[in-house]
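in:
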């Protein structure tokens, strides 16, 4: 799993040791990324299950001091199930930077 900036540059990577995208991988990425940022910065997060992750983090009080600094949105291919206001602050970002990254890297590792 990766955190990719607006211009599709890799910021952080997480080595997934279990099958599937577990929420704790995304939480680990957010925690690590915020440790590198100034305390006054906000972060826009486009994630295909952003609504689920945000709800879980609120419900279980995960990273409560960071939650007010996160603006959530969903990637373009998942946006049709949401109100358009979810992504209005993200401009032309499609949230598919990770997919482009994996496409570029796929020749380096075999498919299991």
């Amino acid at each position: 799993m990766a955190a990719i900036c607006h211009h599709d540059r890799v910021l952080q990577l997480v080595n997934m040791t279990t099958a599937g995208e577990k929420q704790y991988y995304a939480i680990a990425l957010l925690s690590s990324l915020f440790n590198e940022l100034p305390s006054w910065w906000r972060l826009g997060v486009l994630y295909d299950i952003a609504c689920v992750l945000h709800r879980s983090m609120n419900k279980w009080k995960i990273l409560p001091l960071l939650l007010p600094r996160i603006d959530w949105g969903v990637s373009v291919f998942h946006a049709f199930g949401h109100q358009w206001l979810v992504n209005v602050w993200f401009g032309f970002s499609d949230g598919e930077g990770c997919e482009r990254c994996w496409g570029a890297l796929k020749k380096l590792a075999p498919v299991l």
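note: DSSP finds three helices and four strands in the chain.
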